[in-house]
Amino acid sequence: xxxxxxxxxxxxxLRSLNTLALPAIxxxxxxxxxxxxxxxxxxxxxxxxxxxxxxxGGSNVVLTGDFDGLVLRVAMAGRHxxxxxxxxxxxxxxxxxxxxxxxxxxxxxxWPGLENLSLIPGTVGAAPVQNIGAYGLELGERxxxxxxxxxxxxxxxxxxxxxxxxGYRDSRxxxxxxxxxxxxxxxxVTFRLPKNWLPVIHYAELGAELEGLGIKSPNARQxxxxxxAIRRRKLPDPxxxxxxxxxxxNPVVDLSTANRxxxxxxxxxxxxxGDGLVKLAAGWLIERAGWxxxxxxxxxxxxxxxxxxxxxxxACGRDVLALAQAVQADVKKRFGVVLKPEPxxx
Length: 346
Ligand code: NAP
Description:
This protein is an alpha+beta fold. 24% of the residues lie in helices and 28% in strands. It contains nine helices and 20 strands. The strands form six sheets. Strands 6-7-12-10-11 form a five-stranded antiparallel β-sheet. Helix 5 packs across helix 6 (220-234). The chain binds NADP nicotinamide-adenine-dinucleotide phosphate (NAP). The site of NADP nicotinamide-adenine-dinucleotide phosphate has 20 residues, from strand 8, helix 5 and strand 13.
């Protein structure tokens, strides 16, 4: 079958393609719906653009202005059981699938393991880039392998879990900025979902939610429902109030810094990380610095969860940048702690 020519759209408004709803014009945009288009893409003059950006669900980017290069919009769909052994189901999804719909589908099939990550916005392909995590579970714990197409080398490359170099909301894909360079496009991700599944319910809020429902030994579906209920109460729906989830990473500090802060603030939330490191709650620091529910221009920090930066309607990338910097400066002044943004700035 002969492949249709690639369509390179010109001057595309990206507002509806990023969950912060920031306005930005992309000089060129191509939508990838099948992996076989990727080798083809390299033959086109448009591919030689000075800059390329790989865009999934747009839930982890801050578009600071127009993009004068080529945006590769990843929309490859499909998901299936790729294999099974005595210990696990191996479930594969193409990169353009919506993350939450994929999680719900695995649960409907009776394959538990991703329930704590319910309702996180974005696509399956973008999820490993920042090693999404919530309620005590990180994607890296369930990932078996992924396939990405190297647009520069012109080949499909496989990455096992170790070679993804996952860290706290981090991976080699993020560290090496491949999505910003438009080099590797994640094509599919395979998850290893354990048959000897155990619930992960040690986060206090999740435990309390289940207890409130009278559930002592929850199944995966019940955990997913509890996570969704908590998230719906605390987090804004990007379709109604544009946002990019947690805007800052929780800072990890050394023990002496944590102890110094605890001496000044007896209610400081802290979580030991091992190696003498302590994770602090960025949302708590932001709230105590006076930013919960406060706006700067057309952007603000959400009233129910101070860690989420929201677009109040007409914010542009510069507004987001100004607010992020103001919050960082106040937290630094008050606590001496540097907050790092979770999304990437383009
Ligand atoms: P929270 O309950 O207000 O707690 C603040 C922070 O404390 C959390 O971010 C969490 O870190 C940490 N924490 C709480 N209990 C912990 C425990 N038992 N062990 C270790 N660390 C613990 O948190 P929240 O803001 O409502 O978020 C709840 C969960 O959803 C968190 O896991 C958060 O990461 C996740 N979430 C993620 C996004 C995103 O965009 N990535 C957005 C919203 C919520 P961790 O963040 O390391 O888990």
